[in-house]
């Protein structure tokens, strides 16, 4: 009997910090986001791996034992979203600010995926972003750690989608810290925005 195997031969990768080197894209695997090999078809992947039509990265052939998690394993060995009817169809890419979980699904080829935290979730449904240069109209350059990205600007919470609040200081839609976003050295106020704690 052949033992089923998930990651045949292993797979070198690193955690995604919103940017992956050329030829790789961010993908959520469990509670961690990794840089995975990008592909257009199965020829771009090594033996026992297939080009996922749902995420356009090389993943193990799920017929060999790889667990698809919330996705489904097709008869051809692909892990696909349950609502994905045609694995050969290219998904429409989304503009900045729209909810997406994968970089390849964004016009900018960059997204922040939804993530589970100890207190809930952050970046609900994910968000297409791009590094600050000249941000388009209706977007504001916002610092996220050591990097800065264009996020939707706002006047109040009505301008932000569910799971996000309008930070009155930077006037940009950011994740609601009451449901899981970590404010770091700042404090989470009653409105769900991060602010400088009182002295």
Instruction: Walk across the major sheet and give the strand order.
Output: 1-2
Q: How large is the share of residues in beta strands? A: 25-35%
Poorly predicted spans: none
Sheet having the most strands: 2 strands, antiparallel
Evaluate the radius of gyration.
19 Å
Order of helices and strands: EEEEEEEEEEEEEEEE
What level of helicity do the residues show?
A: under 10%
| Helix/sheet category | mainly beta
Oligomer: single chain
Averaged pLDDT: 83
- Give a count of the beta strands, DSSP E runs of length 2 or more: 16
Write a short abstract of this structure.
The protein has 199 residues and is mainly beta. 0% of the residues lie in helices and 28% in strands.
